[in-house]
Design goal:
It holds the Pfam family HTH_3. With about 110 residues, this protein is mainly α. It has helices spanning about 5-10, 15-25, 30-35, 45-55, 60, 75-85, 90-105.
Length: about 110
């Protein structure tokens, strides 16, 4: 996790460390250590709690300073859906309809 990114997002949201702590159930001292990069590898549970409270993707907390989260092409989301739906033996027409829905959702 990138501490300065966490601090920047927290400040952009107008949240104090105390407020983020109460929102996540994570101690103030641990959040402070994350922001100062004293602790660099928190558990995924911790990252997810922070991301949820800050209303950001987990990926955004993992990006380095100034690094932008790459946008995923629409087909990538579709491929993930198609793979998980492949167990259901759907015909190609149904899969194409689902692709259209995924593209609309991602817009």
């Amino acid at each position: 996790m990138n501490g300065s990114t966490l601090k920047q997002i927290r400040n952009e949201r107008g949240l104090s460390i105390s407020k983020l702590s109460s929102m996540t159930g994570i101690s103030k001292s641990y959040i402070s250590c994350l922001e100062r990069d004293v602790h660099k590898n928190p558990s995924i549970d911790i990252i997810e709690k922070i991301a949820h409270s800050l209303r950001v993707d987990v990926d955004q907390l993992l990006c380095r300073d100034g690094e932008k989260k790459p946008k995923k092409p629409h087909t990538q989301g579709f491929l993930q859906v198609e793979v998980s739906l492949s167990d259901y033996n759907l015909d190609m027409e149904t899969v194409e309809q689902l692709e259209g829905l995924v593209i609309k959702i991602n817009r």
